[in-house]
């Protein structure tokens, strides 16, 4: 008997869009979390409403997990095409389960999902059968499993509820004897952790940061943030708007900010491309706005449901002319929460546009984390009551003029997209133009003082430094741990430096002094952040590990590519 002893169990569900894979994922992750496992799930999907091949990867562990791995212990196939799609993840110890007759393949274990579901009433129930099957394999409590599924489908009527209960019970009866094929360490005691996605972390961070206006135009993969904040608008003091296009989105957000709101918009690269003029307007009228941009591969529509870190340059240089901005790139759910709140506060305080850069992998991945604390998060509104001699763009030493809003005080709050004087009125003289431009740009010096230092993992005197930003961080961290475990003699010479704020950058010479090798890890074609560091930190990267096939790095893949570099002399 093929028995596995696992403290970290990895499974993959593969099938067509419309076959209910997401429902299986939701059920299993919730049940496993209740049983005491730490959970992690991520998905990749085609741009199809029906058909195609989608997959969901789930990790269950005794320890916290937040990265995607290649190793797969169990694969459940719902379509023949899924086998080809997932072939490279089938190893010697992988066990495949499928309905052989229904999809025409030979799996390690044949489970007649289709006929079981048909006997219950409809083939649609085969996903619930599969959920029960895995619950049995994991030896999850049967009564709790039944109760959870029953509660989940209670709103759909008694008949649907009863059939789903029968389906999960049938699957459990088949899966329970198969538990002998796997020896999975018993989970720990249930924690108080919450299980959320990257989209959830951004939306919750917006709430904590005082966001009271959100708008957007639906665009994968950013729509999840808009949806969640729209839902929160039913219970919190938020106005949510679905706008006709992205040009309208950015201008409505700026209009809301002009009136005193703290706005956030959510978009992806193609939508953001239409916002360039509005971003430039934000810079000119010094009106704050926060843009969440969930990156996906380009150019043009590219791969609309895949992932890439390809829009850093787009955000960095968006808008015509020069004006200050802030750019954050969370690598963990905790960073997603705190950086979104931070972006809202700093944008409001410094009257600049701020950007939160995520990607498809980040927003569609979820795992369990300790509940977030709002300690240290400010929601103070930096708005003044105007007097009758109020001037919106008064010259100040730090470039930050007192911000008034219409109707709050006696003054006129005049703003204009043309160059203007202190009062906001249009000018064309050279002297005022130079003074106003310098006034805006001087904010950069103050913004740099708010810089969030990068996270260093590893020895402070390491000679080789792996540099990451955004969502590549968890995989790089785990790859570094794997390399240290395999080669403990070299562990003191390698460190990881993760940036969650990518602009503006201060003098970083102290971080890089004494180092010999720099390796950039990025999910894009050129190494956009490495270019930025070379420009501002005057360092030279000896190697760039890049991936741009629309998929995230796995821990094993990154480990192998790093070790290959080291073997070739990078360390």
Protein model, in words:
The strands form four sheets. The chain has an eight-stranded mixed beta sheet, sandwiched between helices. The chain is globular and about 80 Å long. Helices cover about 40% and strands about 20% of the residues. With about 575 residues, the protein is of the alpha/beta class.
A few lines on this structure:
With 571 residues, the chain is α/β, with parallel strands linked by helices.
Per-chain topology:
Blueprint: E1 5-6, E2 8-17, H1 21-35, E3 38-44, E4 51-61, E5 74-77, H2 80-86, E6 95-98, H3 100-103, E7 109-110, H4 113-120, H5 126-137, H6 142-152, H7 158-178, E8 183-184, E9 194-197, H8 198-208, E10 213-216, H9 223-232, E11 239-242, H10 246-258, E12 263-267, H11 269-273, H12 276-285, E13 289-295, H13 312-316, E14 326-328, H14 333-350, E15 353-359, H15 360-364, E16 366-369, H16 430-441, H17 443-448, E17 455-457, E18 464-469, H18 473-486, E19 494-499, E20 501-503, H19 509-512, E21 517-522, H20 528-536, E22 543-546, H21 555-570
Parallel strand pairs: 1-8, 2-5, 5-6, 6-7, 10-11, 10-12, 12-13, 13-15, 14-15, 18-19, 18-21, 21-22
Antiparallel strand pairs: 2-4, 3-4, 3-16, 9-16, 14-20, 17-19
Helix pairs in contact: 1-5, 4-5, 4-7, 5-7, 6-7, 8-9, 8-14, 10-12, 18-21
